[in-house]
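In the design runs reported in the main text, the only information available to the sequence generator was the tokenized backbone. The following block is the verbatim input for one such run; it is reproduced so that readers can re-run the procedure and compare outputs position by position.
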């Protein structure tokens, strides 16, 4: 073996064999690194000499959950500390106690075994020495320390505390190595078996040494109290008893042994880490090369970290194997913003989503603003991951840094935008950003590949209300079924808006079936327009979604059209996105589900005035038809058209053959 120790190599092999017999991990897992931070803070505080130093902890223990365990973390640590505090006499009895602790911890991984024992040490020593530590400035703490037979003046026991501090630092350093090794994604990187096997053997012994040292610390508590009593009775202020020196010496010996273990183990773990990162980097660079049977290999490469359940949906943990037959949409973003809520609406709540079995899933990969997650970012993530229907990475702050760097550099993720990378059922990346096609077509875009986006534009390349409003406005489907006409209008000139609404109401009173949607690009005016008792109020969210879709249409179209060719969709979208509100009073898009036309706001007002003047004679026309007729130049002279009564009664409206405007009706008798 590599580690020098006070037991022979044969005994080490026997101990490893015993440890492996008592090691039966059952999936229980906790965030060992987070627990270690809290334990290290507690032990550093109670062992320091400077009582004025604040306790630098944010009480994250309440956020540490033991997954797949019926026990809470405090209860588990309490059970361990009870076993560690039981008095043991002689090496044989102490060794039995060590192995009993490993039997108690058999369901946990090696890093968790070490961390739970350190947690028990912090709980006992924290409760024991905190009153003594605060006694100088807190009379109540001094009384508690006296009742517990603990020294208030630490100078007499400085060698013992120094030895204890040395051992605690060594245990923490070794435990960090164990945690780092356990977190290496060996499933995604095939390392030399000799290197891994040798490191594993040393991980077993290192965990054993941590447990042995922590048990030794707690077993010295009775002796420490006896030493304190003997010292007080003799009033030997500057001298330490033989028992005290022996106790300090034992802790120092264990500390130096652990430091020696750390030096050797750290080199091995670092070598494993370096080789693992190199292989993962190579596999990430070749992520879309070759063929795969399914999507499992690429998903394991991206998400495998601390365990086999790296994903969650609400509070339910999800294994990667559950996604085997699914098309995967990887949503890369900061904590959710409006476009992401709309994305969910399109894929989960869209009226056309009638599939009984959903054959795709969104996996949210939240990307922090910096390399380190803040507590605020964690709170935001927890809120949204437990509130929205997508799947998310469980504890994304544990994701491999190489994977995150790959997303930023190779997949070109930018901090100020969201992107949706699509992986098909065969594990191939088929679209580097499907965000636009999802915002335009929703579930109709399945399977969300680039080729499917091309197909959708070939199938439906018309400028229509369907393209603009489907999935955005909650009443759009109903309006289409009822054959109603829709007028979307926008302006920053509120006087123009007021006149437009007034004319629209008069036109509706004539019998025209139209629905109005008011949109303000800059969001300065959040007024809602209600034209009828049953009309739907337009929220500011709908306004924002409209512009988001237009921007998506523009981006999607610009990728596909040649500069020399004209395209009506891109022309109309550009008119709205680049509309000059300073030069023009407003704009309007008028039509039914499958058709739409843009009209300048100034011209539209003039035409609506003409329709109002026509009155009931135009009521049989559609609004779009009436607007088109109102654009025609009127006849210079009045003329009469005679139509037989029976024929005229069947006609919706009689229009002038020259100017195409509706004509007034009169009944004549001959």
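Verbatim output:
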């Amino acid at each position: 073996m590599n580690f020098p120790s006070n037991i022979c190599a044969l005994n080490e092999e026997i101990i490893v064999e015993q440890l492996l017999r008592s090691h039966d991990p059952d999936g229980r897992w906790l965030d060992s690194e987070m627990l270690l931070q809290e334990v290290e803070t507690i032990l550093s505080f109670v062992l320091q000499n400077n009582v004025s130093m604040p306790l630098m902890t944010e009480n994250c223990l309440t956020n540490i959950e033991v997954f797949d365990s019926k026990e809470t973390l405090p209860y588990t640590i309490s059970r361990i500390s009870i076993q560690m505090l039981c008095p043991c006499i002689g090496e044989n009895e102490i060794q039995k106690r060590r192995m009993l602790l490993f039997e108690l911890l058999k369901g946990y991984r090696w890093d968790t075994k070490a961390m739970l024992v350190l947690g028990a040490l912090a709980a006992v020593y924290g409760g024991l020495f905190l009153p003594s530590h605060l006694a100088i400035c807190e009379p109540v703490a001094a009384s508690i320390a006296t009742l517990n037979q603990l020294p208030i003046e630490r100078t007499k026991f400085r060698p013992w505390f120094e030895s204890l501090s040395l051992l605690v630092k060594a245990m923490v350093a070794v435990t960090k190595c164990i945690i780092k090794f356990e977190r290496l994604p060996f499933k995604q990187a095939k390392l030399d078996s000799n290197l891994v096997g040798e490191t594993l053997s040393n991980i077993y012994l290192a965990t054993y040494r941590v447990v042995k040292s922590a048990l030794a610390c707690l077993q010295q508590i009775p002796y420490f109290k006896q030493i304190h009593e003997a010292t007080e009775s003799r009033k030997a202020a500057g001298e330490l008893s033989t028992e005290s020196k022996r106790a300090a010496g034992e802790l120092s010996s264990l500390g130096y042994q652990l430091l020696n273990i750390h030096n050797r183990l750290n080199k091995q773990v670092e070598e494993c880490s370096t080789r693992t990162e190199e292989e993962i980097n190579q596999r990430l660079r070749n992520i879309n090369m070759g063929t795969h049977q399914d999507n499992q290999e690429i998903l394991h490469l991206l998400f495998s970290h601390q365990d086999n359940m790296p994903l969650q949906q609400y509070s339910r943990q999800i294994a990667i194997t559950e996604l085997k037959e699914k098309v995967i949409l990887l949503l890369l973003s900061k904590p959710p913003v409006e476009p992401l809520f709309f994305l969910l609406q399109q894929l989960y709540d869209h009226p056309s989503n009638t599939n009984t079995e959903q054959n795709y899933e969104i996996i949210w990969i939240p990307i922090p603003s910096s390399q380190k997650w803040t507590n605020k970012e964690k709170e935001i993530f927890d809120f949204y991951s437990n509130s929205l229907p997508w799947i998310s990475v469980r504890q994304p702050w544990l994701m491999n840094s190489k994977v995150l760097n790959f997303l930023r550099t190779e997949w070109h993720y930018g901090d100020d935008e969201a992107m949706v990378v699509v992986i098909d059922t065969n594990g191939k990346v088929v679209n580097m950003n499907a965000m636009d096609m999802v915002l335009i077509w929703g579930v109709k875009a399945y399977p969300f590949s680039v080729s499917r986006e091309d197909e959708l534009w070939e199938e439906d390349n018309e400028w229509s209300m369907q393209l603009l409003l489907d999935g955005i406005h909650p009443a759009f489907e109903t309006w289409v079924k009822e054959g109603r006409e829709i007028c979307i209008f926008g302006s920053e000139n509120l006087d123009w808006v007021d006149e437009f609404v007034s004319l629209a109401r008069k036109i509706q009173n004539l019998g025209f079936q139209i629905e109005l949607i008011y949109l303000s690009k800059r969001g300065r005016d959040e007024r809602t327009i209600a034209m009828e008792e049953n009309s739907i109020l337009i929220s500011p969210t709908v306004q924002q979604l409209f512009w988001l879709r237009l921007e998506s249409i523009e981006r999607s179209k610009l990728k596909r059209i040649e500069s020399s060719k004209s395209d009506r969709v891109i022309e109309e979208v550009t008119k709205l996105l680049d509309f000059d509100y300073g030069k023009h009073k407003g704009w309007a898009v008028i039509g039914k589900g499958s058709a739409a036309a843009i009209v300048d706001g100034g011209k539209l007002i003039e035409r609506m005035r003409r329709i109002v003047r026509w009155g009931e004679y135009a009521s049989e026309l559609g609004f779009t038809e009436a607007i088109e007729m109102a654009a025609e130049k009127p006849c210079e002279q009045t003329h009469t058209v005679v139509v037989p009564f029976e024929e005229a009664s069947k006609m919706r409206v009689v229009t002038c053959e020259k100017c195409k405007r509706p004509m007034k009706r009169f009944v004549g008798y001959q």
